[in-house]
Specification:
The chain is mainly alpha-helical. The chain is built from 8 helices and no strands. Helix 3 (43-60) crosses helix 4.
């Protein structure tokens, strides 16, 4: 057992500021290098990843016996945070690219797109409309919807996915004007 690592991680877990500062100084470069390696991105992106990883580490750290175990865990956290950030960026770029279009259809007036969507929703069964409303209007989690309706989370997820797929397919069938 590496007493210094065990002591440091215990102190960080207790939130002792000098230990947190020492931890940050000791492992920052390692985390930054790993973020660069995993993401293949620029300095700014990797610094954000390291910051988010450090916050996650500070919230979840437990005493660790050896430095090898600690380094492996730290690299796993950085990898997870980097992948999360890359996914968020990819989704954001997708949303930005989709603005002004409905599934790659030419942009029409926003009110026309909303009217089309309302029409599609009205064509769905009322229970499906209720699921969509709870999920996207009220922002409920799948588990909460499932509990309210007495369904499993998988059932709610499947029904929502099928309803949204149907709407997407219909959007793809819209004529190009």
């Amino acid at each position: 057992m590496d007493d210094t690592v065990a002591q440091l991680t215990s102190a960080v877990a207790r939130g002792q500021e000098p230990a947190v500062e020492l931890f940050y100084r000791r492992f920052f470069d390692l985390l930054y290098r790993h973020a660069r390696q995993v993401s293949q991105r620029d300095e700014s992106f990797c610094l954000d990843v390291v910051q988010d990883a450090m916050l996650r580490i500070m919230r979840t750290i437990r005493p660790v016996a050896t430095e090898a175990q600690l380094v492996a865990w730290l690299k796993l956290i950085v990898k997870s945070v980097a992948y999360d950030a890359l996914r968020r960026e990819r989704r954001r770029k997708g949303r930005e690219a989709a603005r002004g279009t409905v599934d790659n259809q030419p942009a029409t007036d926003e009110s026309e797109r909303l009217a089309w969507l309302r029409e599609q929703l009205l064509a769905l069964d009322p229970p499906l409309v209720r699921l969509i409303e709870l999920r996207f209007v009220h922002g409920w989690k799948l588990a909460r919807i499932a509990q309210l309706l007495g369904l499993s989370v998988g059932t709610v997820d499947g029904r929502l996915r099928r309803a949204l797929d149907r709407i997407r397919r219909q959007a793809g069938e819209m004529p190009n004007d």
